[in-house]
User: What shape does this take?
Amino acid sequence: MDSRLVVLQQRIGHRFADPGLLQRALTHRSFGTDHNERLEFLGDAVLSLVVSSLLFDRLGDSDEGDLTRVRAHLVREDSLHRAALQLGLPELLRLGEGEARGGGALRASILADALEALIGATFQDGGFAAALSLVQSLFAEIIETTDVSSWTKDAKTELQEWLQARRLPVPTYRIIATRGQAHAQTFEVECAVPALSLRESGEGKSRRAAEQEAARRMLDALSASDEPGSPLRS
Assistant: This one.
């Protein structure tokens, strides 16, 4: 076995009984038919489960919405990209000639997918305990220092950044209803993302508060749709 793969196994704390699984996890579809996309699909599910479990234990007072948002931040592409770099995956990827020449080994999306495939391969080879250990080593520290409020303070900014990262137009907001007396009004605002044909509404005691709530609901909808095979997934 390549000595670099031996080092990688030491880093992740798992020695593969089937080295072919490890090789496949590091193989991009541009390289050949025995690529890592199926393992990526499996790893995405395992990663979500393990991070959900860690957050459930760590953030015991948080509701479902907060847990969902924190998880989305932890398993998003840039977080996975950083973890892949820490493991040294760029030098281990198997890429087609054109993809390699184009800098694919450093592309965030390819590295994030490879890390998910590595998690999936570890699960296949060593079971849940091995995958749990790997994910814990990658995310336990950031989970232990996570403050829910730091992820939930400005939904409008978060939504705008989510869309811009995917080269989509910023959302639009409009008041669709105003209820109550002038001194105690409740505003209902619609947040629309026309590029994705999505609309969500939110209410608040001010227009700004209603916009934030609408943006937060839009983020929840996007998070729920950000699954393997979905057009919303980066």
